[in-house]
């Protein structure tokens, strides 16, 4: 971590060197560590620290971006020159008006940094893995997965007086418990390392692997399906990226284009983007330094809003909602702090009220077939179960599905009361915790198109 003062100095260096009409600089620094395990032993332990400096230079409406991961002042100056050179060769972008000018008092005060999480050591992660592996061995299973933690800082400044700085921390754990012909999975994470119960997570993954042993096949078709929150996370992620994206909306490529103010989902669905939820991974500003805001996307099935960054907002003659991603970003703005409100049911009640159906733990390898209609495909994985006469009776071999997410979310039979945080895996090339608050969903007539051999 380089700290606010050093980050501000980098911003000031870029502002001083710039010859553009307007310039923006994003400083992104992170430290992260990961302990990975497979076949019931730790096989990888890595630590990474990196800093990125991204410069966006603007001449009129011509925009160029360049970046470096060197903090050497001369390398930063070179990056400024590259961004300016690239900008001079661009065509005018008619959607660009100006970078935002934000008074620092406009930012909500948020402390997303937890020192204990950032300091969680190699030994601490190894001890957590030891707990997981001991549970796997006790049940005759093989454990795979990872425990990782990290901290990041973001500083954004521009030539119009905007400057914003934030620190973040998070911990993430995923566990696969594998048997001879079955598996179970758990994924968990938080800003607070003390809130992660590694023992409970491992026992849950182990129980799924044990209960799904010797899975049977079921014919493809339409089934009453109960989706645990990790599967719901996938459905909501595609919905947010392709439907509430302001750029796609304004270009007529979103299902919602021309439908705001109308009922588009089941009346049980209320969906918010809440960047100030302190139980999740809160944020005060987006990657342009624009203040974030809490937004109702859907209320009781009625679509109310899409999200904007400054460029798409200018095109729509509206104000940014604080949803810019880091530049250059051809995809458009995306809501990143989603919460689907809970309902009035529970997993146990859903199962008890199901004559015949399927319980899905999570999806694997999901992809978009039709981004406008929001048709996606993928497979179930790590815990798929048959429900008969109100009880889970067996494990099922995995199934491929092809389904229209909008239509599926119009066939919601029940929503669980609890909506809890389910984080996304950090991935590679950076560290910034984010996730979705999701409950368990029961959906009628979900379409499974083919079966697998496992």
The low-confidence runs, each spanning 5 or more residues with pLDDT under 50, are none
Work out the strand percent: 35-45%
Helix content: 10-25%
- How many strand units? 19
Count of DSSP-assigned helices:
10
Distance between the termini: 45 Å
Overall pLDDT level: 96
Class of secondary structure makeup: alpha+beta
Instruction: Please provide the ordered H/E string of secondary-structure elements.
Output: HEEEHHHEEEHEHHEEEHEHEEEEHEEEE
Which strands sit side by side, in order, in the main sheet?
A: 3-2-1-4-5-6
Give the overall shape, derived from the CA principal axes: globular
Structural domains: how many = 2
Please give the radius of gyration in angstroms: 23 Å
Q: How would a textbook summarize the main sheet?
A: 6 strands, antiparallel
Question: Can you describe this structure?
Answer:
- With 454 residues, the protein is α+β, with helices and mostly antiparallel strands.
- The two termini are 45 Å apart.
- The chain has helices at residues 3-17, 73-88, 115-119, 122-138, 198-211, 229-243, 246-250, 310-316, 347-352, 405-408, and strands at 22-38, 41-59, 62-68, 142-158, 163-178, 183-190, 221-227, 271-273, 295-299, 302-303, 338-340, 356-370, 375-388, 391-395, 399-404, 412-415, 420-423, 435-438, 441-451.
- It has two domains: 3-211, PmbA/TldD superfamily (PmbA/TldD fold); 221-451, no CATH class.
- The protein is 23% helix and 37% strand.
- It is globular and about 70 Å long.
């Amino acid at each position: 971590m380089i700290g606010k003062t050093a980050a501000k100095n980098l911003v000031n260096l870029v502002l001083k060197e710039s010859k553009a009409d307007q310039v923006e600089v994003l400083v992104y620094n992170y430290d992260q560590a990961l302990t990975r395990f497979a076949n019931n032993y730790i096989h990888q332990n890595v630590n990474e620290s990196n800093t990125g400096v991204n410069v966006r230079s603007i001449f009129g409406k011509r925009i160029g971006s360049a970046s470096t991961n060197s903090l050497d002042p001369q390398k930063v100056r070179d990056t400024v020159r590259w961004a300016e050179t690239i900008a001079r060769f661009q065509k005018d972008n008619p959607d660009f008006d100006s970078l935002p000018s934000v008074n620092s008092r406009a930012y909500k005060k948020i402390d997303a940094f937890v020192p204990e999480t950032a300091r969680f050591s190699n030994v601490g992660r190894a001890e957590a893995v030891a707990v997981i592996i001991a549970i796997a061995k006790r049940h005759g299973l093989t454990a795979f997965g990872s425990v990782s933690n990290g901290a990041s800082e973001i500083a954004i400044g521009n030539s119009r007086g905007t400057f914003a700085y934030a620190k973040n921390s998070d911990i993430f754990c995923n566990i696969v418990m594998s048997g001879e012909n079955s598996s179970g999975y758990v994924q968990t994470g938080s800003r607070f390392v003390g809130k992660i119960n590694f023992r409970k997570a491992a026992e849950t993954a182990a129980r799924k692997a044990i209960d799904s042993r010797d899975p049977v096949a079921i014919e493809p078709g339409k089934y009453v399906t109960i989706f645990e929150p990790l599967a719901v996370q996938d459905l909501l992620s595609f919905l947010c990226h392709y439907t509430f994206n302001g750029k796609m909306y304004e270009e007529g490529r979103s299902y919602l284009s021309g439908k705001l103010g109308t009922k588009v989902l089941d009346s049980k669905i209320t969906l918010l983007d809440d960047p100030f939820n302190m139980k999740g991974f809160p944020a005060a500003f987006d990657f342009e330094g624009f203040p974030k805001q809490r937004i109702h996307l859907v209320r009781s099935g009625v679509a109310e809003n899409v999200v904007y960054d400054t460029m798409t907002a200018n095109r729509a003659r509206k104000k940014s909602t604080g949803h810019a991603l880091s530049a250059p970003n051809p995809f458009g703005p995306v809501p990143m702090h989603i919460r689907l409100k809970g309902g009035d049911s529970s997993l146990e009640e859903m199962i008890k009220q199901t004559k015949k159906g399927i319980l899905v733990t999570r999806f694997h390898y999901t992809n978009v077939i039709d981004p406008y209609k929001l048709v996606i495909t993928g497979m179930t994985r790590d815990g798929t179960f048959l429900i008969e006469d109100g009880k889970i009776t067996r494990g099922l071999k995995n199934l491929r599905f092809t389904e229209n997410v909008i239509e599926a979310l119009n066939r919601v039979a029940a929503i669980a009361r609890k909506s809890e945080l389910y984080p996304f895996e950090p991935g590679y090339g950076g560290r910034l915790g984010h996730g979705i608050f999701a409950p368990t969903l029961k959906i009628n007539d979900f379409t499974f198109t083919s079966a697998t051999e496992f």
